[in-house]
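Quick one, probably user error.
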């Protein structure tokens, strides 16, 4: 025993909507191809907005919904691979914009699209030793900065955005029981950093990543359910990383999850990488679909190849 519960969430999306039609005017593709293969119809992309601005707005909403002040936060982690700067980290910038106390642990974490799950687990471990027992976990990516807009196989998939979660740690609460891992794969999904001489764009072998996701998601679900001694029926809502509607639908079918128990926003968000799960949580909360005491099973997967799953309880009025 000792773990975290989800207290409040928030999200922020850039205002510019990029439709499949807009993309079909840039590369050799069609709305029909993109919709059929991915389920995506449109995505948001930053024009004037910054990564830091998205993080701050998402975090403010999460703190407000949680009823927690910046002064009560003990740890702040931003899961990202596209921050405005390498130094300072997005989390340090967030400390400044939100006014978090000076002894708050603030750092970024990169586990690509699994970043939010890695960050939640790290948060649970760190809060046990932190000065204050509320933690702020933000997932934010501005992939439009690293997408090759002339590559039709990748540019259609991604969108920008931020999602945030405020969690609370107590010794009497059970752990989220996160399962995390990595294959050490350096080829299937690649995006060079500032020190690289490679073209500064994200590249991907889509079919192989698709196959990996179809193995990783059920594996994570089974391990998480096993750790908690539960079955899929005991879970109130499933939130999967939004990478492709076909992946989500295939998993939902395999586990016979009814439509009202899983969430899909990929149609209008695209794949927002580390932000996809917290954005989904925030939209679920806004829709009244995360009642107090309910349990959400989260599964992410992505570059690395990384994966992560966890079961988190909503603890708003405790
Ligand atoms: N429009 C039209 N045709 C396209 C296209 C596009 N935007 N992108 C690729 N194609 C073409 C290919 O060139 C290929 O043509 P060919 O058969 O003449 O060579 C054909 O469509 C099939 O390509 P393929 O890559 O096999 O398609 P797919 O069915 O695997 O779908 C993805 C591609 C990317 C949608 C799919 O593989 C996917 O979603 N993978 C997982 C991606 C993912 O989750 N990434 C993030 C992990 S966090």
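Nope, works fine. Designed sequence:
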């Amino acid at each position: 025993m000792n773990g975290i519960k989800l207290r409040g969430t928030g999200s922020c999306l850039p205002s510019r909507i990029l439709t499949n039609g807009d993309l079909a005017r840039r590369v050799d593709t069609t709305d029909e191809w993109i919709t059929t293969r991915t389920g995506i119809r449109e995505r948001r992309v930053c024009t004037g907005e910054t990564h830091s601005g998205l993080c701050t707005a998402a975090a403010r909403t999460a703190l407000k919904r949680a009823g927690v002040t910046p002064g009560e936060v003990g740890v702040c982690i931003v899961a990202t691979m596209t921050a405005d700067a390498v130094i300072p980290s997005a989390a340090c910038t967030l400390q400044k914009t939100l006014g978090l106390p000076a002894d708050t642990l603030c750092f970024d974490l990169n586990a690509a699209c699994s970043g939010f799950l890695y960050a939640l687990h790290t948060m649970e471990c760190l809060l046990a030793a932190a000065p204050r027992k509320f933690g702020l976990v933000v997932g934010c990516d501005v992939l439009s900065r690293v997408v090759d807009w002339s590559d039709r196989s990748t540019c259609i998939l991604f969108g920008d955005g931020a999602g945030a979660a405020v969690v609370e740690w107590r010794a009497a609460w059970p752990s989220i029981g996160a399962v995390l891992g990595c294959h050490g794969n350096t080829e299937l999904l690649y995006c060079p950093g500032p020190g690289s001489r490679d073209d500064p764009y994200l590249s991907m072998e889509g079919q192989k990543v698709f196959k990996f996701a179809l193995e990783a998601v059920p594996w994570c679900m089974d391990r998480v359910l096993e750790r908690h001694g539960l079955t899929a029926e005991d879970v109130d809502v499933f939130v999967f990383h939004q990478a492709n509607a076909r992946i989500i639908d295939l998993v939902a079918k395999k586990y016979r999850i009814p439509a009202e128990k899983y969430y899909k926003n990929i149609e209008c968000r695209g794949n927002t990488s580390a932000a996809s799960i917290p954005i989904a949580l925030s939209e679920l909360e806004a829709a009244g679909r995360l009642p107090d005491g309910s349990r959400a099973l989260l599964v992410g997967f992505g570059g690395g190849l990384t994966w992560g799953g966890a079961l988190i309880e909503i603890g708003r009025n405790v």
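The mean pLDDT is 97.
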